[in-house]
Amino acid sequence: MDPFEDTLRRLREAFHAGCTRPAEFRAAQLRGLGRFLQENKQLLHDALAQDLHKSAFESEVSEVAISQGEVTLALRNLRAWMKDERVPKNLATQLDSAFIRKEPFGLVLIIAPWNYPLNLTLVPLVGALAAGNCVVLKPSEISKNVEKVLAEVLPRYLDQSCFAVVLGGPQETGQLLEHRFDYIFFTGSPRVGKIVMTAAAKHPSKQHLPPPSWIFPLPASASSLSCSQPR
């Protein structure tokens, strides 16, 4: 029996129903994420200390504050980001209305690493929610205390018809990747990145496989991952 089928069906149905498209809904999810960070700061610090022996200062600066800053930035700019972008017209389109409308991808999968288990989980989550997507979040099973907080506490702050956390190791992640996602955001080693790319190539999807300080898109076909940063 597929452990993910019902969850993914629920999220796709919510997306196709248009639940995530209104700016008000997106803003509500972002505010919920901000409350999660504020109200559970000590819990997150404790989990990061247990998993990675991070001090409270390091946890705040490198994990919590960065994530909170992304939430603030997205809320401040959300409506501007959602506006249609007017583009120049040529002779053949003078009587037309020419613009670029930004559309959400649909169902987004975020696979997070162990070494910055909050920052590299929630920062891409902010972008996915602001863009109006439904999200499946796969935290690292290695950072087990942070994983537990994300699985048990974070969903209380977000609309669970459009958001889910899934748990497991390599075997479960492999099963998850057998499903089609419209966008995959992965941070990790080249070895695992190749596994993600191979699985995603079976379905039409976009992927981000970023090094630590910048992000580059790769097509859904086999590509070199030689510049991907080891984790």
TrEMBL record:
The Gene Ontology biological process annotation of the record reads: aldehyde metabolic process
Q: Which InterPro entries match?
A: Ald_DH/histidinol_DH, Ald_DH_N, Aldehyde_DH_dom, Aldehyde_DH_NAD(P)
Named from the GO MF annotations, one term is: aldehyde dehydrogenase (NAD+) activity
- Alphabetical keyword list: NAD, Oxidoreductase
Report if keyword Oxidoreductase is assigned.
yes
- An example of a Pfam family matching this protein is Aldedh
Task: Say yes or no: keyword 4Fe-4S present.
Answer: no
> Source organism's superkingdom?
Eukaryota
Q: Which GO terms describe its cellular component?
A: cytoplasm
Where the record annotates domain Aldehyde dehydrogenase, the positions are 10-206
Q: Where is the signal peptide?
A: none
Q: Which family does it belong to?
A: Belongs to the aldehyde dehydrogenase family.
The protein depicted here goes by the name Aldehyde dehydrogenase 3 family member B1
Tell me the gene name. Answer: ALDH3B1
